[in-house]
């Protein structure tokens, strides 16, 4: 969707500014890319769980020293600094997640906890920005990711006020799209494009830990802008909101967010705010073709949803770039 053209020097409120430079981002005033995401159902996961029972005669898992209740913790992964060469290997006998060990049987057991998994790179000067200024932008980029994907209020479906406040108001189409998605979500205005939200009447987090894995990079972009690229996977263990619920399911969200900071002497920008030039998302284990602004994790007794038409996908495979293909549709996941 292209931005509605504004007159040269026009502000977000339609008034004229005193300078005659181009609009905030670049000379053709393109809107931020809002690629559609792939929703991936959980049908394959249920079958895989049944297969584990068949392949576990004599409770072999109980005899393994690294099982989740053995007291032996999996070694944490070092920070990700580049795309891995392949997906993490499958466990021979994947454990079933429980309330005490919600990440059992998942590569996420070795991921960092929450915001600790978002590690900005060391800052360097870029264009007209000093090292300290670049470091400040990277901190704000991390803050945006935390507020949009880890803040308990956001996860419970609340208004992500702190995240919205970081977005440059001189991006009217972006802010309008996000506000529309939060107030009246539909297929074209979906807050899940940027925010992770669950319906608190449907599910709750199993524990207080969300696992995080990814990396952030930066470079000099067009016209000397600072271009920040963030690519992170978040793993959410959930149970049904009903009292006494104990079955743990996991929803995996991968987000790619691109941010630009332009020279305020040449472009209309709001100091201290972030301009979003792209945000793409993939979701694993959520109901297909539901656009009510919430993720809907599937459990063993969930009713069948839309028929999967896309490919089978491993949500833990970070070796591949996200395509943002709007035609990919719903697929199936090989694991969660």
Number of helices: 5
Biggest sheet: strands, sense, closure? 9 strands, mixed
Order of helices and strands: EHEHHHHEEEEEEE
Structural class: alpha/beta
Mean pLDDT: 81
Strand content: 15-25%
Question: What's the quaternary structure here?
Answer: single chain
Poorly predicted runs: 1-71
Q: List how many beta strands DSSP finds.
A: 9
Give the CA-based shape: globular
Distance N terminus to C terminus?
A: 33 Å
Range of helix content:
10-25%
Please give the radius of gyration in angstroms.
21 Å
Overview in brief:
The chain has 336 residues and is α/β, with parallel strands linked by helices. 16% of the residues lie in helices and 18% in strands.
Can you tag this structure with a few keywords?
alpha/beta, 9-stranded mixed β-sheet, 336 residues, globular
Summarize the structure in words.
This protein has a domain at 38-48 and 110-333. The chain is 16% helix and 18% strand. The protein contains five helices and nine strands, in the order βαβααααβββββββ. It has helices at residues 43-54, 131-149, 152-155, 161-166, 172-183; strands at residues 38-41, 112-113, 203-205, 211-220, 226-240, 249-261, 275-284, 312-313, 331-333. Strands 1, 2, 3, 4, 5, 6, 7, 8 and 9 form a nine-stranded mixed beta sheet that branches. It is globular. Residues 1-71 have low confidence and may be disordered.
């Amino acid at each position: 969707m292209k931005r509605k053209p504004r007159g040269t020097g026009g502000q977000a409120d339609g008034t004229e500014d005193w300078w005659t430079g181009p609009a905030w981002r670049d000379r053709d005033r393109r809107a931020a890319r809002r690629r559609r995401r792939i929703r991936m159902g959980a049908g394959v996961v249920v079958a895989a769980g049944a297969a584990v029972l068949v392949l576990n005669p004599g409770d072999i898992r109980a005899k393994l020293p690294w099982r989740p209740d053995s007291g032996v913790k999996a070694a944490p992964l070092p920070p990700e600094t580049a795309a891995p060469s392949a997906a993490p290997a499958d466990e021979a006998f994947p454990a079933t997640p429980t309330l005490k060990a919600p990440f059992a049987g998942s590569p996420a057991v070795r991921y960092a906890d929450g915001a600790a998994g978002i590690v900005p790179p060391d800052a360097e000067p870029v264009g007209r920005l000093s090292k300290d200024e670049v470091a400040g932008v990277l901190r704000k980029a991390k803050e945006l990711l935390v507020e949009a994907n880890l803040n308990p209020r956001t996860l419970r479906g609340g208004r992500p006020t702190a995240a919205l406040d970081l977005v440059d108001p001189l991006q009217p189409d972006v802010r309008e799209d996000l506000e529309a998605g939060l107030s009246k979500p539909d297929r074209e205005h979906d807050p899940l494009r940027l925010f992770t939200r669950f319906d608190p009447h449907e599910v709750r987090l199993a524990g207080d830990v969300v696992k995080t894995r990814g990396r952030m990079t930066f470079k000099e972009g067009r016209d000397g802008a600072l271009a920040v690229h963030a690519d992170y996977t978040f793993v959410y263990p959930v149970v049904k909101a009903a009292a006494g619920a104990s079955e743990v399911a996991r929803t995996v969200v991968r987000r790619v967010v691109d941010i630009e900071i332009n020279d305020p002497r040449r472009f209309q920008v709001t100091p201290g705010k972030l301009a979003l030039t792209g945000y793409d998302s993939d979701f694993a284990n959520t109901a297909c073709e539901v656009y009510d602004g919430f993720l809907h994790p599937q459990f063993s007794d969930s009713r069948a949803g839309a028929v999967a038409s896309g490919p089978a996908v491993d949500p833990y495979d970070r070796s591949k770039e996200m395509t943002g293909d709007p035609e990919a549709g719903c697929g199936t996941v090989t694991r969660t």
